[in-house]
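Quick log. Single chain, no ligands specified.
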Amino acid sequence: MERLTKLKKVKRKRKHGFLTRMKTHGGQKMLKRRRDQGREQLSV
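-> predicted structure:
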């Protein structure tokens, strides 16, 4: 069962992770908004 969980985590990181956000202009804007709000965790 552990293997499935890890695969899901990888899939989640690839789709919603910090590096993926930084690749696009919209993603960078989203991270900036979250920083401005004072979020502790910006993305997955």
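Helices lie at 2-16, 18-23, 25-37.
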